[in-house]
Amino acid sequence: MPICAVSMSQDFGWNKKEAGLVLSSFFWGYCLTQVVGGHLGDRIGGEKVILLSASAWGFITAATPLLAHLGSAHLAFMTFSRILTGLLQGVYFPALTSLLSQKVRESERAFTYSTVGAGSQFGTLLTGAAGSLLLDWCGWQSVFYFSGGLTLLWVWYVYRCLLSEKDLLLALGVLAQGLRVTRHTKVPWRRLFWKSSVWAAIISQLSAACSFFILLSWLPTFFKETFPNSKGWVFNVVPWLVAIPAGLLSGLLSDRLISQGYRTITVRKFMQVMGLGLSGVFVLCLGHTSSFCMSVVFASASIGLQTFNHSGISVNIQDLAPSCAGFLFGVANTAGALAGERWARAPCLQVSSPEFPGGPPGCPTSCPPTRSGCFSLAGCRGRVPGRLPHRDHGLLDVCVQPGGRHQQPGAVHLPGVREGPAGGPEPHP
């Protein structure tokens, strides 16, 4: 969807707010099924949950162009389609966590999870590369057909070759009976949620998911608007091309350190510092460069380092509670998905003035870090770093130009700003 957002906005006449609504609506559904997916994975097996949900979301994805053109209410149908896709995909990672916690030894979990994560990144890479070409050649509809078709092909292969029909029918029967035939494992929930390590895991997962969803949702739009003449396949492919070997390296390194006698918790913490701390540094750098090449480098480094989270918090949850890892991961990832919904909305020009303290009505108080798409004028006296390019901020209907002038299809006024030196606009004294 992020790859097609710009083209679909042009076809349907969406502004930034409406495009952000479609992007964020995925997370409305995604948030709701995290805990359910983990619970089902713990009870009937993660592999069955993944296969059943993938068959449904593959069909919905392939049918998305048809849903978008069902009537004149394109925005409503598209939003409904994204909510449905989010509901179905929300079970994936919790069910996967449950599956790996039950099938993989602790000393091998990091590399196994990183390998599976590399498959997810390869899918993003393939969709980014093929999707960019299909977008140019055949239109945005072909991207949905391609992605949905590949998913259904994978489901058919797994069903025919890897998962027996008997197991799948048993899982469907269990679901139909309301989970009465289940694996009975008593979990001390109260004692579990009193542990500081569990809350640390939840907060870490929230942070990791939030930073990942920001880049996943808005990176194509950032490059498309900041560098309009750049090739889409470059910024849609290179970061994920870096992420695959980075994820495998993190898994190998983590398991190697544990096998050499380092404490498991120490290794998990080290991986998390790399996945959150160092990755965050490159995100900050991304917001302060005007070079396309350096922007690609910073984005690639940030996404590559984020794969270290697979060897950190993602497997640490399995260490903490193997018998209910899917449920616990679902709780943690729900928090991250809620943050993703908040940050997937359209970027805005944040203004704080005597007329609108805290910003104009309807504008979020913060927004994703883009080079020129988000800044603040505190009472129109705050310095705006960097020279602003001519850029249309559709959410507020304000067009900001280098001299601080504004055009006004809407009713927002930016008083007290004039052109300053090369460092950027300066406020009036």
Number of strands: 7
- Report the radius of gyration as a whole number of Å: 23 Å
**Domain count:** 2
Topology as a string of helices (H) and strands (E)? HHHHHHHHHHHHHHHHEEEEEEE
What does this protein structure show overall?
The chain is mainly α and 429 residues long. The protein has helices at 5-12, 16-32, 34-44, 46-68, 74-89, 92-103, 109-138, 140-161, 165-176, 189-193, 196-226, 232-259, 264-286, 292-306, 313-320, 325-343, and strands spanning 350-352, 376-378, 391-393, 398-400, 406-407, 417-418, 426-427. A hairpin with a 5-residue loop joins strand 4 (398-400) and strand 5 (406-407). The protein starts with a helix and ends with a strand.
Any descriptors?
single chain, mainly alpha, 16 helices, globular
Short description:
With about 425 residues, the protein is mainly α. It has two domains: about 5-185 and about 190-345, Growth Hormone, Chain: A; about 345-429, no CATH class.
